[in-house]
Specification:
Shape: globular
Radius of gyration: 16 Å
Low-confidence stretches: 1-14
Distance between the termini: 44 Å
Mean pLDDT: 81
Oligomer: single chain
Structural class: alpha+beta
Number of domains: 1
Strand content: 35-45%
Strand order of the largest sheet: 1-2-3-4-5-6-7
Number of helices: 4
Number of strands: 7
Helix content: 25-40%
Order of helices and strands: HHHEHEEEEEE
Amino acid sequence: MGRGFILRENKHQMTNLNFNTLKQRLISSEDFSETFDFFFQNFAEDAAFYDRGKTSINDMLPKVIKGTGKKFYGENCEISNYRMTEIEEENFIHGTCFLDGNITLVMYFTDLNLGLASISMGGARFNFVSLKATKIEEGFGVQFSKEQNATMN
């Protein structure tokens, strides 16, 4: 019984370590596909990760994502099927939505106002976009600091 508790405790500690590693990758990585690979390998395959989250009520992130969509699809870009999950103790939001009908995967740290989006451009083509929000007097500004195109196999 004590041994099982230790295993769960270590798994939780490993998850916290993974969040810190993911943050560092978002801050410094030049290869966005590697950051998404790290997320999928260390979080997406872990059922306990999903148990920690709840539906996000963050009102800033949809504005950042829509601003990103406008860059790719123009001023009339539509955001739909917005489904984000928030793990408050990690200041982390992740999930999916559609930008003009194109699936978009998002991960975002609220304490850094920094994240990453993978926008499907049809077939196996994706644009990876670094998301950065800056609080300004009348709301939030969206900065497009980095962008990469990639074809996934």
